[in-house]
Amino acid sequence: MPKTVLTKSGFTLVELMVVISIIAILATIGLTVYTQAQKSARDAKRQQDLQEIQKALEQYYAVNQNYSSVASIYSISNFGSYFAAGAVPTDTQTTSNYTSFVCTGTYRVCAKLEVTTNGNMDALATTCSSSLVPSSSGRGFYCVGNISN
C-alpha cells in the first residue's frame, strides 16, 4: 500500500482571529473619521447658509430701508426671492428653520453646530440685542447679525 502524506493547508484559528481583529480596528478608525468629516461638512453648510441669509437680509435692507418687524426671517414676505434656490435655507440635517430674530434695525440668525469647536458663540442669541462678541470657550453655535452691529 502506498503511504499517504498529509500536508497542512489553510490558516490556523489564531491567524484568522488576528486578521479579523486588525480589520475590525481599521474599520472602527475609518468609521470614526468618516463620521467626524460628515459633522464638519454639515457645520460648514450651516455656516454657509447663515452667511447667505446675512447677505440676503442686507439686500432686503438696501431695498426696504429696514429689516422688517416680523418675528422670524421665515415670516418675511417674498424673502425667498433673495436666494438662488428661491427659498430661505433650513438646516439640512434636521430640516428645521434656523433660530432667528428680526427687529426694525437689527437681526440675529443662529445655528447649533455638531462640532462644538467650529462656532463663534457659546450660546444661541435669544433676542435682537444679543451680543455677537465671539466667545473664548464653548463655541457650539454660529451666529450672524447685521453688518452695522
Instruction: List the helices and strands in order.
Output: HEEE
Helical proportion?
Answer: 25-40%
What structural category do the secondary elements indicate? alpha+beta
Give a count of the beta strands, DSSP E runs of length 2 or more.
Answer: 3
Supply database-style keywords.
rod-shaped, single chain, alpha+beta, 149 residues, three-stranded antiparallel sheet
Structural features, described:
The model has no long low-confidence stretch (mean pLDDT about 85). This protein is an alpha+beta fold and about 150 residues long. It contains one helix and three strands, in the order H-E-E-E. It has one helix at about 15-65, and strands spanning about 100, 105-110, 140-145. It has one domain. Strand 1 and strand 2 form a beta hairpin. The termini are far apart.
Task: Give a short synopsis of this structure.
The chain is α+β, with helices and mostly antiparallel strands. The chain contains one helix and three strands.
